[in-house]
Specification:
InterPro entries: DNA_heli_DnaB-like_N_sf, DNA_helicase_DnaB, DNA_helicase_DnaB-like_C, DNA_helicase_DnaB-like_N, DNA_helicase_N/primase_C, P-loop_NTPase
CATH topology of the largest domain: Rossmann fold
GO cellular component, one term: cytosol
Number of helices: 17
Number of strands: 9
Pfam families: DnaB, DnaB_C
CATH class of the largest domain: Alpha Beta
Enzyme class: isomerase
CATH architecture of the largest domain: 3-Layer(aba) Sandwich
Number of domains: 2
Distance between the termini: 70 Å
Keywords: ATP-binding, DNA replication, DNA-binding, Helicase, Hydrolase, Isomerase, Nucleotide-binding, Primosome
CATH superfamily of the largest domain: P-loop containing nucleotide triphosphate hydrolases
Structural class: alpha/beta
């Protein structure tokens, strides 16, 4: 670590640090600007960190900053001699004639601080990879998290004036008015669902939750295929943690071609089946070959998902939709318990939607406890493992098929898409046709709609 310390010495400007401290003693009114950009930990010099912390304490107490108040405050805590005494504070105070350029000095301090943090991350990586039996995947995930946090901390202030905000709003309203059919987001391909949501909106986290055998994966596949076929030159990313890519593709061929999935799995297909498969393959191989990205990596962490999503976006284009099957199969091993783990995964998926500026549709399991109720239609309280899911999600859709619980149900072959939460729109129920043998959801015929 001595080599690291030696290397960090060149990543600092003690002159700039002195100018920031001296400038604050000259012009107390600049404190708020400075505090928005740097903190005490951004100073390389320990004496400078202590002086800045003491300045912050004085400001919070409503006291002025000058050579006398700062020196007396530090001396009262017995630290003045350790920092070079009154003479050093006086030197800092007199070495800057004006506070006019204080923000430029702050930017220098902040830049060097980020450089040192980046150097520490690099040193940690080097140290960890040299350890016997080191987990390279874990090291990469940690490095990605650390670098992401560093990058996020360096982001500029997000506040905007009302005027700037209204300009952006008017531009967005004009764009939406030009959207066909009132669909301002990524289309679902189900007319009633699109009407209620105006399409899946960029930056939204959409949870699709259900008990086993309700058709969660089939719903997501139908949604992705519909969205790609109803748009031009769009790209979708599908992360399947439960099933390999081959099984997902088989389901897609079954859904597009209307070929029974079981016949495809068993290989018992006749000429009629092959005749149906051919156009389905044509759609996948000719119309969508570079527009649908399937990743079947198991045990993805939030960090690895973001890395893969960014890489795929660079390689294939910005996604219009990201699908995940399913949320509870992700892991976040640095968390202490499952509740915290799911909360971190949920937060990261919402952050991914905002970063990629597209909807993220994540499948989720439901608690088994709903099975004991007379009415087994899900509600938000049934979301499994964490209340953070309900909080982070912009839209929650439950899939319910009555025939799963009631063999003689009058609603055979239909499903309810229950929108239980939508931040920017109504809630309600959309009825869809479900064809289990083709693993697909589709519109109900007009006469069959409720």
């Amino acid at each position: 670590m001595s080599e690291l310390k030696k290397g960090l010495e060149g990543l600092a400007s003690l002159d700039a640090e002195q100018c920031v401290l001296g400038g604050l003693m000259l012009d107390n009114d600049r404190w708020d600007e400075v505090a928005m950009l740097i903190s005490a930990e951004d100073f390389y010099s320990r004496p400078h960190r202590v002086i800045y912390k003491e300045m912050a304490r004085l400001v919070n107490a409503g006291r002025p900053l000058d050579l006398i108040t700062v020196s007396e405050s530090i001396e009262s805590q017995g630290n003045l001699d350790q920092l070079g005494g009154f003479a050093y504070l006086a030197e800092i105070s007199k070495n800057i004639p004006s506070a006019a350029n204080i923000m430029a000095y702050c930017e220098i301090v902040a830049r060097y601080s980020r450089a040192r943090q980046l150097a520490r991350i690099g040193a940690d990586i080097t140290h960890e990879v040299r350890q016997p039996g080191s987990d390279i995947t874990h090291i990469m995930e940690k490095a990605e998290r650390d670098i992401t946090r560093l990058a996020e901390s360096a982001e500029p202030e997000q506040a905007i004036t009302l005027f700037d905000g209204m300009e952006k709003l008017l531009t967005e309203l004009e764009r939406r008015c030009g959207s066909p059919g009132g669909i301002t987001g990524t289309p679902c391909g189900f007319s009633e669902l699109d009407a209620m949501t105006s399409g899946l909106q960029a930056g939204d986290l959409i949870l699709v939750a259900a008990r086993p055998s309700m058709g969660k994966t089939a719903f997501l596949i139908s949604l992705i295929l519909n969205s790609l076929m109803k748009t031009v030159d769009t790209v979708a990313q599908f992360y399947s943690l439960e099933q390999p890519a081959e099984q997902i593709l088989m389901r897609m061929v079954s859904a597009l071609g209307g070929v029974e999935l079981q016949r495809m799995k068993s290989g018992l297909m006749d000429d009629e089946d092959w005749a149906r498969i051919t156009p389905a393959l044509q759609i996948l191989m000719e119309d969508l070959p570079q527009r649908l990205i399937i990743d079947d990596s198991s045990g993805l962490t939030p960090g690895m998902l973001r890395i893969r999503a960014r890489r795929n976006a660079r390689k294939y284009g910005k996604p219009s939709l990201i699908g995940l099957d399913y949320l509870q199969l992700m892991r976040s091993p640095e968390q202490e318990n499952r509740t915290q783990e799911i909360a971190e995964i949920s937060r990261s998926l919402k952050a991914l939607a905002k970063e990629m500026e597209c909807p993220v549709v994540a499948l989720s399991q439901l608690n088994r406890s709903l099975e004991s109720r007379a009415d087994k239609r899900p509600n938000n309280g049934d979301l499994r493992d964490s209340g953070a899911l309900e909080q982070d999600a912009d839209v929650i859709i439950f899939i319910y098929r009555d025939e799963v619980y009631h063999e003689n149900s009058s609603d055979k072959g239909t499903a309810e898409a229950i929108i239980s939460k939508q931040r920017q729109g109504p809630t309600g129920v959309v009825r869809l046709k479900f064809e289990g043998k083709f693993t697909r959801f589709s519109e109900l015929s007009v006469e069959g709609r409720y």
